[in-house]
Protein: Olfactomedin-like protein 3A
Organism: Parambassis ranga
Amino acid sequence: MRPLVVLVTLACFATAQHQALIDYLERRLLAIEDRISLWHEQTTRYASELRELKQQMVSQLENLDKEKEVLRMSLDSVGTRVDRVERELDYLETQNGAQPCVDVDDKLIEQQVTLVKEKQKVKYLKVSECSDMISSIKAMKILKRVGGPKGTWTKDTSRAPGKVFIFNGTDEDTIHEFASVQDFTRSLGMALSKNLKLPSAWRGTGHVVHNNYVYYINQGEELNVLKYDIKKNSVTDSAVFPVQDHVPVYGLTPETVMDLAVDEEGLWAIYATRQNERHISLAKMDANSLDIEQMWDTNCPQENAEGAFVICGTLYVVYNTKQPGRSRVQCVYDVNGMVTNEEAPLVYFPKRYGSHSSLKYNPQEQLLYAWDDGYQILYKLLMKKKLEI
């Protein structure tokens, strides 16, 4: 019996050791599983954080590229503006020099005058192949009557379809913007318009809208051309127009001290000074920097003039005739010398209510946007080639 007891005892002891080993191994496996689970959670979290960091880095790099481009454009703009400011300072110094420097100022004035005369003698370098001129008024359409007797209405001259802009009056600061011509015609007054408030009042009726910018005239001690960004609702540039003794450009619209125009070749300024013996002058401007590229004195008188516009580098001045409500193009000036008054066709405007306070040409549509005693009128133009005269 004793050997049997010993064997049973040994078996029980072995079983107990085996069970203890199994329990130990189970505990170790559970601990390993917990640690693996923890590692998995940490790895997932680290991977998520790395993805977020990557997205942030990509976004930061994109922003840096954008800021770099904005900075580059700003530097280019600053360089252009510095050049213009230097020229304006030179001009202002010639007008307000100190007494001890009278001789030097006289020399500077002579240099400025010589420069302008040289610009007037140089043949204008065309920036397009446009050679159209007016043959006749093909059609007239009165859209509606809104606002006062004098004002301006126009579309953005850089695109055919689009918004309509109403400048009511000759000394205001709020533009009425309509989404389309259809909205303008069916609107009760200005009810469907959006108001754009300028930082300063415009002067006269010589404004234009081009490439999402409003170009308008403000008159203080100097004659200023301002460039207003419609999208940013702010003035992005301005320039003093370098003329002395300026006078109203049109005899029948004395509020308009300068008339801006846009044609196929860009931005123009129509103005007048006492030095040109009451005749109209013309200047080609850079629409981006507002610099003056070239200037011309024309033989078109201001007296009895209603307005003017430019097509393919040719200035057309409209005069009121002796017949009530009748106007005609009576003076033409082509900067390339291809058209003269003798060669230009007679262009009569249909009978209307009064006289035009503004005439704005849209080169995309070949339409004239006219304001006549509060009536908004469209003129469809029939064109021909200058070489066909």
